[in-house]
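Hypothesis: this fold can be encoded by more than one sequence.
Test: take the C-alpha cells below, design a sequence, compare later.
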C-alpha cells in the first residue's frame, strides 16, 4: 500500500516537473525552436545510415533492410526519450557535485536520486527523434510483415519500457563517477560512443561481443530486444534476462548512488 502511495506521489511530482519544464522553456521560444532545428540536423546525419542500408541492400543474419530500419528507428526513438528525460539531468548532476548545489537538494523531502534524475525535462529537442523513430519503426514493422496484434504491440511497448530503464542505469554511470573523480569527460565520451554504436542490430558483431553487450554491459537490450521480441528471435534465456536485467541493474545503481553520497562532501566545507 505504501508503495502505491509513493508511486502516485512521485508520478504527481514528475508531472509537476514536466509542467514547470514546459513553462520554463516556453519563456525562451527562440532557444526552444533552435534546439529542435539543431537536433533535426543531427537526425538528418543519422538518416544517411538508412540510405546506405537500402542502397547496398545489406542483409544481416537474415534481417532485411526493412527489418534493419525498425532497429534503427528504435535507436532513434530511444535517443529522443534519453534526450528528453535524462540527458540534461545527468549533465547537471556533475555540476551539482562540483559546485555544491547538491547541498540544497539533499534537504528536500523527496528521494534525492529521483530529484536529480528527472528534475529538468527537455521538451523540444526530443521531438524530431521521437517522430522520426516512430515513423521508421512503423514502416519497418509493416514492411517486415509483422502481425499488428495486441500481443505484439504490448510486447514491443514493454521492452521499450525496459530499454528506458536500462538507458537510465547505464548512462547515469559517468555522472555518478563525478562523486569520486574531478573530470569524468572521458567516461561520458565512451558512453556516447557506445550509445551511437548501438544503432544497428547487434547481430553485426561476433558472438563474444554479443554476449558481453547482452549479459555483462547490456547495451544491446536497449535497442535490440524490442524489435527482436516481435520478430520472435529472442531465446527464452534472453527473454528472462531482458525482464530481470532492469531490476538487477537498477538495484546496482541504487547501491552505487548510496555509496556515492557517502563520499560526497560539500564544496563549501
Amino acid at each position: 500500500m505504501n508503495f502505491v502511495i509513493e508511486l502516485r506521489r512521485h508520478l504527481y511530482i514528475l508531472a509537476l516537473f514536466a509542467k514547470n519544464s514546459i513553462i520554463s522553456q516556453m519563456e525562451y521560444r527562440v532557444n526552444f525552436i533552435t534546439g529542435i532545428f539543431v537536433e533535426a540536423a543531427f537526425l538528418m546525419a543519422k538518416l544517411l545510415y538508412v540510405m546506405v542500408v537500402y542502397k547496398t541492400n545489406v542483409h544481416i543474419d537474415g534481417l532485411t533492410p526493412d527489418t534493419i530500419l525498425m532497429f534503427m528507428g528504435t535507436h532513434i526513438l530511444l535517443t529522443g526519450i534519453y534526450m528528453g528525460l535524462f540527458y540534461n539531468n545527468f549533465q547537471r548532476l556533475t555540476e551539482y557535485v562540483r559546485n555544491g548545489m547538491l547541498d540544497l537538494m539533499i534537504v528536500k523531502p523527496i528521494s534525492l536520486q529521483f530529484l536529480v534524475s528527472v528534475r529538468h525535462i527537455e521538451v523540444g529537442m526530443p521531438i524530431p527523434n521521437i517522430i522520426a523513430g516512430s515513423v521508421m519503426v512503423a514502416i519497418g514493422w509493416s514492411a517486415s510483415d509483422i502481425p499488428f496484434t495486441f500481443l505484439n504491440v504490448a510486447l514491443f511497448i514493454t521492452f521499450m519500457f525496459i530499454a528506458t530503464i536500462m538507458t537510465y542505469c547505464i548512462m547515469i554511470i559517468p555522472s555518478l563517477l563525478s562523486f569520486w573523480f574531478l573530470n569524468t569527460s572521458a567516461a561520458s565520451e565512451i558512453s556516447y560512443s557506445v550509445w551511437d554504436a548501438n544503432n544497428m542490430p547487434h547481430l553485426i558483431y561476433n558472438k563474444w561481443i554479443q554476449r558481453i553487450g547482452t549479459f555483462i554491459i547490456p547495451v544491446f537490450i536497449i535497442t535490440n530486444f524490442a524489435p527482436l521480441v516481435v520478430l520472435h528471435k529472442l531465446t527464452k534465456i534472453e527473454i528472462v534476462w531482458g525482464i530481470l536485467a532492469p531490476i538487477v541493474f537498477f538495484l546496482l545503481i541504487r547501491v552505487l548512488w548510496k555509496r556515492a553520497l557517502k563520499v560526497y562532501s560539500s564544496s563549501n566545507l
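The chain has a mean pLDDT of 89. The radius of gyration is 19 Å.
Hypothesis status: open.
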